[in-house]
Structures are given as C-alpha cells and as structure tokens.
Amino acid sequence: MAKENFLVLLMLILLSTNMAAASVSTRKLMFLVQPQPNLLTYHNGAVLHGDIPVSVLWYGRFTSAQKAIVSDFLLSLSAAPRASPSSPSVSQWWSSIHHLYLSKAAAASVGKNSGEHGAKIARVVLSGQVSDEACSLGKSLKLSQLPALAARARPANGGIALVLTAQDVAVEGFCMSRCGRHGSVDAEAGTAYVWAGNPATQCAGQCAWPFHQPAYGPQAPALAPPNGDVGMDGLVANVASMVAGAVTNPFGDGFYQGDRAAPLEAATACPGVYGKGAYPGYAGQLLLDAATGASYNAHGARGRKYLLPALFDPATSACSTLV
C-alpha cells in the first residue's frame, strides 16, 4: 500500500512539474509576441487639396518685421522650384507633404489605377490678413474661443484661418501642454484653422527650442534664430507643424496615429527632429549661416531662412528631414 501511495505521489509531482513547465513556456510565448504598432495611417477622410487659401488673424501687437517673417514663410510654401534660390527649400518641404500624404489620399479616392501623377500638388495662397491689435476678446483666451477668432479671418472654402497670438496673450494650455493647435472652423465648407502663439516671453524654452535653452531635460547652448527673432522663428516652426496637420488631417478623419482626440500627425509624430541624427536635446545636423551664425534647414522667399520640422514617412515609419 505504501508503495502504491509513493507511485501515485510521484506521478502527481511529475504531472505538476510538466504543467508548470508548460505554463512557463506559454508566458514566454505571450511575452515574445509583441503587439503590432499603431501606425500613422489614412482613415479615408478629407484632406485639403488644390489651391488652399490662407487668411491670417494677428491677435495682439506684432511689428511689421514680425509679420513679414510669417507672410514670407507662407509665400515660400508654394514658390515654384525654379524660383527657389537654393536647396533645401521651404517649397521642397511642402512638396514632401504632397508626396507622403496628399497624393496617397488622392489615389485612394479615385482608385488604385491612378497613381501620384493624378494628384495636383496643393498650393498655398495668402488670401488676406486681419489685425485685432486691441485684443477684443481679452488677453486670456480659452480654446473654445479659437474657432470664433478664426472665423473673423474669413477663411475661404477649402482654406485655413491662421490665428496668431502676440507674446503677451495667454491661451489655455499654451506652454503647459501645447505650442499650437489646429481644428475645424466649418467642416461642411471645408475650412480649418491653425493657432500658434509667440512664446518669446511666456515659454521660449518649450515653444521656441532650439533657439532657447530647453525648460527641462538635456541642456545645450541655444541656436541662433535665422530671422533674428527667437519668438517668431519658434512660432514659424510651430505654424509649420500645425499646417502640416491641418492639411493632412483637417477634420479628424485623415492621416493620424493613435487616439483621434489626441493624434500624432505628419509633423507631431517627429517631435524635436529638425535634421539627421537628432535626439532629445539635439535638433540634428543643421545648416549654418556663415554671416550670422544662425541655424536653419530651409531656404525661403526673399532670401529668408527657416527651421522646419521633420515629417513622418508612413512608408518607412521614420522621420524624413530636409538636411
């Protein structure tokens, strides 16, 4: 009897050992099987295309020199390649948005047999500028007020209202969680808005980096801004990022990655990347203006130079830079 009990006990021990081994193997397999990444993809919604009229609302006080920095950037987006004085250029950056995103949306809308050649490159047209120097809604704005402000710029159908706030205007979340924003003015009319603020006095370390030392993280010397204005050169970089998002995902069902309510988009998927070799605290390998010592990565109209964000390439899942 004792011998039989010993054999039963031995069999139970062996069985439990095998089950444990199987359990461990299962956990290892589950651990090795990684979930598929949530890629930046097209969600079959609207994108902006064709001629895209951009109207600007200057909210607060901007000097004429500051306004020229932005208006020259907008004019640079659709400058003809032959008119671009040097390469890389702002217009090349804009063409990348067409190649990486807009052409894919056009091909999807007309069928697989029509490739990129069937899509006309979108063209930005500066359609008007309005000033509200007196800050009629006050100097502390809620996000909910931005669409109404954008409407004052009278955006045309299929266009963008660009709302720019001066350095002494506070906007909900500015500096704490965002440097800019884009959204819808009228989805039926196909109009979107982009907002960005001048961060010079409020948070240059967050929203004008790398032209100011970062507010936190690895510290490195600030780079000289290409247009001699830390706040406005930072603002242009943020405008570029938001315009890229507004064109490719204007109403929340275009190109994006992750949660629709807080998406990563064409430029925001590559935060802090401006040149090859970028890493946190380092913007990447940039061009240097021999005369001024300023850093930039794109030539613009009228001899301007700008620093523009990298664009995420959905085909390679990598950030594509001009330099």
Give a written overview of the molecule:
By secondary structure, the chain is an alpha/beta fold. It has one domain. 30% of the residues lie in helices and 19% in strands. It contains six helices and 15 strands. The protein has helices spanning 2-32, 64-77, 90-110, 146-152, 204-207, 230-248, and strands at residues 41-42, 51-59, 123-132, 140-141, 160-165, 170-171, 180-186, 191-197, 255-256, 287-288, 295-296, 298-299, 305-306, 311-313, 318-320. It has a five-stranded mixed sheet, sandwiched between helices. It has a two-stranded antiparallel ribbon with strand order 1-9. A hairpin with a 4-residue loop joins strand 7 and strand 8. It is globular and about 50 Å long. It starts with a helix and ends with a strand. Residues 6-10, 12-36 and 112-117 have low confidence and may be disordered.
Q: Beta-strand level of the residues, as a percent range?
A: 15-25%
Structural class: alpha/beta
Shape: globular
Q: How many strand elements? A: 15
Query: Using only CA atoms, what is the Rg?
Result: 25 Å
> Order of SSEs, N→C?
HEEHHEEHEEEEHHEEEEEEE
| Number of helices, where a helix is a run of at least 4 consecutive DSSP H or I residues | 6
Largest sheet: 5 strands, mixed
Low-confidence stretches: 6-10, 12-36, 112-117
Biggest sheet strand line-up: 3-2-5-8-7
Q: What is the domain tally?
A: 1
Distance between the termini: 83 Å
Mean pLDDT: 87
Question: Percentage of helical residues?
Answer: 25-40%
